[in-house]
Amino acid sequence: MYVRHPIVSIPNPEMRERAEPVMTSIVRVATETVADARRPGAPTIAKRITVADDPEAIFERFASEGWTDGMPIVPPTEDRVARMLTFTDLDPSFSLGPMPPRWGDATIATLAVNAVMAGCKPEYFPVIVTAVKAILSKHFNLYGIQGTTNPASPVLIVNGPVAREIGVNARGNLFGPGFRANATIGRAIRLIMTTIGGGVPQQADKSTLGNPAKYTCCFAENEADSPWAPLHVERGFAPETSTVTAFGGAAPANIIDKSKTAHEMLETIARAIAVSGSNNMFMSQEALLVLGPEHASIAARQGFDKTRVRQTLFEHARIPFEQIGQSNADVLGVWRGSCIEERDGRRALRIAEKPEDIIVVVAGGAGNHSASIPGWYSRSVTLPLIRADGTPIRSVAELGK
């Protein structure tokens, strides 16, 4: 079922004319019984194919099938997949669940195939399995992220000792090239979303523009240089527990600020994350701030903890309605009425309903830079790396023996 765009920007009668022809199909799908619904039976571990032993032939075959992100892949031979599977104690046929919108089974074996294709080392695999669990969580809203016209995509934040053990970069150039774990873990998730979930660009993936982070976006929090408790500890996990947080958002936007005081710096950052026309204006359930270590140090030296940072941003990150326009204001009155407030006769839009919806992590290297990652209709999910029996994975080396 597909309703031709545009939808929001056309008059209501024309919108109705486009939508009505698909209503019969929508009703049929919404009312079909489980027995009638097309659902897979026993999950297939992995389909075997035969291709000439030539890198170009392999890439051409995979690209023609829509199994890549447009870049070359590592051929997922049985030996390579078997080595990847040594870093999990889950059965290869075990499924983490159906992945929208195609509802393919996210079996451990198919995750391993995609991890190999992405160029992952086998020791990265526990992070990939945990990340897939996180994006399949109801609150993350993967169905929406896969099909939206928005550029939203999973952003992965790795915390704890495993991040350091496998070399997930938390320092300089963490959003950029040069670090295999960051590049290939995030890429594996994109390949999984495409080959299992069916999020194929210009098909199920309706993103108008996309964004470079849809290739890969994975980094670690710089716990060593942070003056505060890391994200996973804030969310109730022990410092020695390793976790993955999946956040649904747009591409990172750089924020440069050379202030000497925390208040001035945070006011600048607040204005930078409260931008007219951004996701943080229209649809952000959460907003992510990646605070550079220098900015975090300025705030901490002047008595700020993460709670006070969030509160300050919450109070100042507002978009005046003069910058929004009447048509957008009408939409926001419906979509985000709870975030609209009036002071001294002037209306403004808060970027979040409450301070806790502003997520702050410390990451990056030297320099007075931070980054805003606007959110979407998604809630971040943090999960621990665990074995099949539920016990925490303290070190990936334990699994590969």
Describe this structure in words.
- By secondary structure, this protein is of the alpha+beta class.
- The chain has 15 helices and 13 strands.
- It has a four-stranded mixed beta sheet. Strands 6-12-7-11 form a four-stranded mixed beta sheet. A three-stranded antiparallel beta sheet has the order 8-10-9.
- Strand 1 and strand 2 form a beta hairpin.
- About 2% of the residues have low confidence.
Structural class: alpha+beta
* DSSP helix fraction: 25-40%
Give the overall average pLDDT.
Answer: 92
Question: What is the H/E order?
Answer: HHHHEEHHHEHHEHEEHHEHHEHEEEEE
Number of helices: 15
> Ends: how far apart?
48 Å
Strand order of the largest sheet: 4-3-5-13
Task: Kindly state the number of beta strands.
Answer: 13
- Please summarize the sheet with the most strands: 4 strands, mixed
- Rg from C-alpha positions? 22 Å
The fraction of residues assigned to DSSP E strands is: 15-25%
Unreliable spans are 34-42
What global shape is seen? globular
Short synopsis of the structure:
The protein contains 15 helices and 13 strands.
Q: Which terms would index this structure?
A:
single chain, alpha+beta
Note the topology.
Blueprint: H1 12-19, H2 23-31, H3 55-65, H4 78-85, E1 95-99, E2 104-107, H5 108-118, H6 125-135, H7 142-147, E3 153-159, H8 161-166, H9 180-195, E4 218-220, H10 231-234, E5 243-249, E6 253-256, H11 262-273, H12 279-282, E7 287-291, H13 293-301, H14 306-316, E8 318-320, H15 326-335, E9 340-343, E10 346-350, E11 358-362, E12 369-373, E13 381-384
Parallel strand pairs: 3-4, 7-11
Antiparallel strand pairs: 1-2, 3-5, 5-13, 6-12, 7-12, 8-10, 9-10
